[in-house]
Every structure is written in C-alpha cells, then in structure tokens.
Amino acid sequence: MSKKFTTKVVHAGTDFTNHFGALSTPIYNASTFAFPDAEQGSAIHEGEIPGYFYGRINNPTQEALENALAELERGEACIVFSSGMAAISNAVLTSVKKGDHIVAPESIYASTSGFLRHLEEAFGIEVSFIDATNPQKYEAAIKANTKLLYLESPANPTLKLCDIEKLVTLAKRNKLSTLMDNTFATPYNQNPISFGVDVVVHSMTKYIGGHADILAGALIGSREFVERCRWHTNKFFGGVPAPMTCWLAHRGIKTLALRMERHNENALTIAKFLESHPKVQKVHYPGLKSHPQHDLAKRQMRGFGGMISFEVEGVEQGRKLVNNVELCTLAVSLGDVSTIIQHSASMTHAAVPKTLREKAGITDGMLRLSVGIEDCNDIIDDLSKGFEKV
Ligand code: PLP
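# pyridoxal-5'-phosphate complex -> structure
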C-alpha cells in the first residue's frame, strides 16, 4: 500500500511482530546480548545472520529508528550516531582516504567546514571550497584524485541552495560519490536520494528530534555503504547513540510531518514580514520570490523549511535585536518547536575568520531564525518589539 508521508512518519520503523506487540518500541538498555550458541554467536558477530551482540554495533531500539529513517529518506538502509557531526565524519571517512580530494561548499555549517579543513591539515585529504550555488564551480574544481562532492542545501546559515539534480549528473559523469546534509529541509520537504544522491546525513538534534532534548545524527544510503559504516568506520569510532536517545528521536519522527507543516507556514509568513520591515536589509528564505534560487527551490523542495536568515545594519544592531526579544530564545541550534534566534557573526561562526565568513556570505549583521510552531503572530509581535530597540 502506498502511503503518504504524514502516514509514514506515524508508523515507520514500528514492528508489532517483535517487542510483544508494544506500540512504542521499548528502550533496550542493554550493552550486550547473549548468544544462543557458539555457532550462531560467531555468525551474528561476523554480521552473517541478523541479531544483536554489542551496543556499539546495534540495538533493537536503534534499529527501529534506523528502519524509520531509511523509509522516510527513501534509502536502502540507515545507521544512527551520537551526533550530526558523528554522522558527517563517518560518512566522509567511509567515502575517502588519504590522497583523495573533496569538493565542498564554502558556505556550510561551520563545524563541517572545520572538520574538512582538519582532514586536510592532519590527514592529507584535499578539500576545495567553492561557491556551491554554481554547479560549474564544482565542475571546475574536479581533479584526477576527486572522490566526493559534498552538498548542504539549504545551507546553514545563508540558506543558499545546491542544484541537486545537476550535481548528481556531474558526479555520475565523473564517477564520483555525492554526500548531502539534509538537516535544514528534512525528508518532509526534500528527498535527495530521489535525485540520485548517494548518501544523506542529518543532525537529528534538530527537526527530527524536534524538542531540543537530544543530540543525534543519521546517515542514509545503500545497504553496502551503511554496513561499511557500521562494521568498519563507526565500529572503530564508536559514536553510537544511547537507546533512550534513539527512542526520543523515533518519537519525534511521529510528529515530524505536523511540525514541519507549521514550521513551513510560519517561516513563510515571517520571512514576508521581515522583508517588509524597514530595519531589515535583506532576507534569505528559499520560499521568497526574492531568493535568487527560488525557482530551483520550487523544483527540488516540496516546502521551504523553518529556517530564515536576515541582515540588519551591523554587529551592534544584531546584538540589540537578540537582546530585546522575549519569546524568541537566544540560543544556538535549531529545529525546535520553539523559536530560536542567533547572531551568526558573534556565535556559531565566531571561530571562522572574518574574511572567510564574509566570502561565504555571513555578514556582521546576519541573524538566523529557527521559526518554531507557536502562533506566528506572537513571533511577529515579539520581533516587532525587538526592532523598536534597534
Ligand atoms: N549539519 C547542520 C546543517 C547543522 O546545522 C548542524 C548543527 O547545527 C550539524 C550538521 C551538526 O549536528 P550536531 O550538532 O548534532 O553534531
């Protein structure tokens, strides 16, 4: 039976034939599992037959979550991690080795670019950072040792997009892998695997968890790639989430569609409000006609998400706004049911040198708003009062 996404989120990963018919998959707080006998123990240990043996490899609560995410992102399989960065580092290091070359956007989540720079300095993996809004820049950066095209779309915090279809075509033509961070869009709004992307990563700390109470990550791709991560990369790195975290993420998924519907609606209304405000110089939101890639957004996204960035005059004005709002919480992170505001230049991107930051489009006066699911008139009132002090 072909089900709609709103139905899928409610049921994905739930298996009544196991777990005594429990509607909510139990939290298996077990680090190790007994083998029925030596022969089966050895086969389970080698991954030759299904089963559990040690929590660093898998766990039934974790597996339920992985099955749900694989279904929602339309991939063959999924593995979950203790954070989004654990998912990203695993995905990259399963894709490349010493001497390989990666092409990545110059404007992405700061810890991801920090990680890629670290690979270059410490492990001899080359990285070229390019303007990812232009597929020709990816093409021009490809070299004989290129193995991976990295995509993040919409990007944090600039809301710039990558043309997924064109980049997949380019990768296939050059026999390269594609890896995409889909955290901002979520599978409600965008499914990169349907465009041919090889591997999708998520910070589940954000929309998938949805309630600012977990740190977790996920990677979705071919069964072969996922199993390589499970039995090789992450077996050694060990970045596994606790069973309780998996259960919370799985519970979050059940309301993902409802929450995203409201996040999308609220964000579009607030983006229009910001665009009309005299103290706002620029608004970046893929759902606005003024976004330079609005047509592309309509082609590859079903909704435009809950993330907006906008620019006021400078650092001082940005600080004043975040210090004079009440309902919007001043915090890092995003994707929570409540609205979160932050000033990128003094917070998440403070560690990025100003020249690199500005090259990536992150100006001194840029603010990032993770629009929650509150009544959007209350958020607009709060922002309006804050602007009076700017
Ligand atoms: N990817 C994006 C787009 C993010 O915004 C973040 C965190 O903000 C991450 C990855 C990293 O996720 P985590 O903090 O769960 O490690």
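# post-check
The longest strand covers residues 146-152.
The pocket of pyridoxal-5'-phosphate is lined by residues 83-85, 109, 111, 152, 156, 181, 183-184, 203, 205, 215, 217, 333 (CB under 6 Å).
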